Amino acid sequence: MAENVKPTRMELINSRQRLVLAEKGHKLLKQKRDALVVELFNSLKKAKDLRSQVNAQIVDSHKRLAIARSIHGDLFVEANALAAHTVPEVSVTTKNIMGLKIPIITAVDVRRNLVERGYSIMGSSAQFDAAVDSFEQSLNAIIQLAETEASLKRLLKEIEKTNRRVNALEFNIQPGLRATIRSIQDHLNRLESERFFALKLTKARLTKAQEAEEEVEGELPEATFTWVEDEDYKSLAGKPAANAKTKDSKTRPTTAKPFKAKPSGKSASKKKR
Fold first, then answer.
1. Residue 104: helix, strand or coil by DSSP?
2. pLDDT of 95-130, one tens digit each?
3. How far apart are alpha carbons 211 and 242 in whole angstroms?
């Protein structure tokens, strides 16, 4: 358990809520990672095919260019290359894959006819036209390859980041929260056990004290009171106390303290008469 965590019931509830949230986030991140991995393999296969096509197309273009140079010379090839003024337009959009924006490069077909290429048809040859056409096809393939490889780079970066988050949740945050919950639960169980033991001890002491009081009350003699009439009281009052001592005794003689009971209803009525 962390040092700054208080072992209270409120902290236990909050830790459980955080654990539930971490488990949900871990599940969602794993799903995102799996979806990104599937998209990565699809893009990887496509990029592999495009890369081989681009390499083959570029090799063929350079072969055709070498033939055109051998026929027309380097000066003619460079002059006709500078005659092209139109630049192909490229638009870049994005698509969303599990929160990741992947670029989509859309380009206008850069292949042009003989009139749009900008050089004279009369001075060129079929080999030069074939070299130009081959390079235009290579440019189209390069644009598609750029889109695919940019997607691959972003997918790899996002997969790596998502994988770090998944590992952090799985091996760091969730075990820490479970350990905190276990520690708080153990602490609360100890407090509950101590409270229960204190209650049992207090109950035992109270029971023992009550039994001692009952034993003391059982040993004491029971006091009896008798109602006497006025005549009987006078006769009892005239007699000396049974436990009175003689005059020769050193101690002071004692006499029994008379007890005058409350007259009953009959005696009270006689007295009124």
1. strand
2. 887 778 887 777 666 666 666 666 666 667 788 888
3. 38
d(CA 220, CA 233): 28
pTM exceeding 0.70: no
Sequence ranges of the chain with CATH classification 1.10.287.3240? 9-189
Pairwise CA distance, residues 61 & 111, whole Å: 14
For the chain, the first-to-last Cα distance in angstroms comes to 94
What phi and psi, each to the nearest 5 degrees, are found at residue 92?
-115, 120
Residue 71 burial (C-beta neighbours within 10 Å; 0-12, 13-18, 19+)? middle
Find out whether 49 and 126 touch, Cβ atoms under 8 Å.
no
**Tell me: the pLDDT tens digits for 216-226?**
777 656 555 55
Q: Which CATH code is given to the segment(s) 9-189?
A: 1.10.287.3240
Angle at 71 between CA 68 and CA 75, to 5 degrees: 75
Using alpha carbons, select from 153, 35, 152, 151 the residue that is nearest to residue 98.
Answer: 35
For the record, the structure tokens of 55 come out as 């390499």
Q: Token pair 């644009």 is at which residue?
A: 143
What are the φ and ψ backbone dihedral angles of 259, each rounded to 5 degrees? -115, 120
Angle between helices 174-219 and 9-72 (to 10 degrees): 170
**3-class secondary structure, 211:** helix
Q: Give the side-chain half-sphere CA count within 13 A for 48.
A: 6
- Are 94 and 102 in contact, with CB atoms under 8 Å apart? yes
